[in-house]
Amino acid sequence: MITDQLILNAKVYNSYYKRFETANVAVKEGRFLYVGALGAETFTAGEVIQAEGRYMVPGLIDIHLHIESTMITPETFSYGILQHGVTTIVPEPHEMANVFGVEGVHEMIRASRDCQVDMFYAIPSSVPATPLETTGGSIEIADIDELMETEQMICLGEVMNYVDVIRDPDCKSNRIIQHVRSRYPGLVIEGHTPKLLDLDLHRLIYAGIDSDHTHQSIEGLTARIAAGMFIEIQEKSMTPDVMEYLISHAVSEHFCFVTDDVMTDSLVQTGHLDHLVRKAIAMGMAPEDAVYAATFTPARRMKMADRGVIAPNKAADYVLLSDLASFAIEKVYKRGTQVYDRMQPLPQAERGPRFPAHFYRSVQLAPLAASDFAVSSELADGRYGCRVMMVNNVSTFTEEKHSAAEVKGGQLQWQESGYGLIATFERYGKNGNRAYGLIGGDTIKRGAIATTYSHDNHNLLVVGHNPEDMILAANRVIAAQGGFCVVCDGEVLALLELPVGGILTEAPLAETAERVLALRTAMESLGYNHYNPIMSISTHSLPVSPALKITDHGLIDVGAGRVVPLLFPLGEE
């Protein structure tokens, strides 16, 4: 029998029994034809691979991530993750949609079409995430219908405004969910449900949202699985207690591993979904179960019956490992064609601009001055209670703290408060909104940081301890048409330009990784104490992530879903 490829003497992962079996594998026309004892005496192959006992696992599948979080283009992202055994992803481009609306989704998909990794896109469901922010674009029901008609969309992306879903039957999120359930009844609906329990959790599931990828606790994890939710475990949920629970309970059908957001330097240095598999094994999970959670269950969650398995008629996406315990990737194959060899890695191909011209002119904001960092107040002179956003070094969640601050001459004396200033400026030229707050905890202790990479509205966010550094950082970002800038004592310590929509760079992977590492190092040099300072600061403006956040509308009490004042009479709150 003639085949395209024959892999001999491999330890092949069988997903149905969750075990490795020594076998030969035949591939024809990009699909697996045979897995078993028969070999060269039966098959005549154009390519014969001597596996010599290497482990053979399906290509890894990541069903919840945002390419924009890595700040690189889809093509660069594909080049990067193939080296880590990831052959299929489900990206949700809600970052680019927040900047450009449905056009941003179309352009991300267009930029993905020549990629070697299969990218099945999710429809952004929450653009904007809440009504409490200004974005460059929005996704409405008509846009969802257009995407379903013109593109191959695989699911409705994470419904983020869980507060309104529970409390407001007529909110935009509920109208979208109801429309999708009625018109596209088979479409998977993804969720974002931090900290919800009991009736609130069940009401969300009743609405049609049956997955969660947010930070898990044992209490939340057990409640979600018991109620029928599918759990997507990202690294921040891989705590010892959560991993012990997953290992010791028969719940392998109810979860998978996902990355959600990965920084470029981490991608290059540590890995992608393979890093989570490796970490799970190191934490005591059987390799067979870890592989299952990165291949089989994510494929089933997204109804991709043609992959995630090494079996007849499945897509011949697979990885050869030299060592299972360390998940050491040697070669990666996509539909039977080698796309990565650890011993002979290919350089990244050079490409020109891939997006429309106006995608490089999205920051419509004039340079800032000292007056932009003076916080005016209509309150009489005196001391007032104030809300402070407290950064937590083990989470992107923040806490609300009440302190005291002075108002003098119609201005908040924020530099004397003992805290830094956080400010956000609407950057799409729509309304000129701006908002201010105080910030403390595990954030910078001096200098300033400015960025347009601020989830999900991507307005200009500035954190600092003196106006001079804040002005310099902000204006460097504005001049670059987006990016990140870290300043201290009038010196630019790091600048990462992100000119595509203010959130992406077209620079090569290796160059971007070096600059992201320099950015992280600069942030830490100012006292930022966090496992991921870039993601931490960029989510200060995410009004669906507990507990106190900021948008151009003001400070947001996330649990209450409302704008709250920075200052209040002492003793009243």
Put the structure in a nutshell:
With about 575 residues, this protein is of the alpha/beta class. It is built from 16 helices and 30 strands.
What oligomeric state best describes the polypeptide chains here?
single chain
> What are the segments in which pLDDT stays under 50 over at least 5 consecutive residues?
none
- Please give the largest β-sheet: 10 strands, mixed
Q: What share of residues are in beta strands?
A: 25-35%
- Distance from N terminus to C terminus (CA atoms, Å) equals 78 Å
Please bin the fraction of helical residues.
25-40%
Number of strands: 30
State mean pLDDT (0 to 100 scale). Answer: 97
Alpha-beta content class: alpha/beta
Number of helices: 16
Give me the Rg, rounded.
Answer: 25 Å
> How would the global form be characterised?
globular
Descriptive tags:
single chain; 573 residues; alpha/beta; eight-stranded mixed β-sheet; 16 helices; 30 strands
Written account of the structure:
This protein has 573 residues and is of the alpha/beta class. The protein has 16 helices and 30 strands. Strands 18, 19, 20, 21, 22, 23, 24, 25, 26 and 30 form a ten-stranded mixed beta sheet that branches. Strands 1, 2, 3, 4, 5, 15, 16 and 17 form an eight-stranded mixed beta sheet that branches. Strands 6-7-8 form a three-stranded parallel beta sheet. Strand 9, helix 4 (141-150) and strand 10 form a beta-alpha-beta unit. Helix 2 (94-100) crosses helix 3 (102-110). The longest helix is centred in the last third of the chain and has 17 residues, at 509-525. The radius of gyration is 25 Å and the shape is globular. The model has no long low-confidence stretch (mean pLDDT 97).
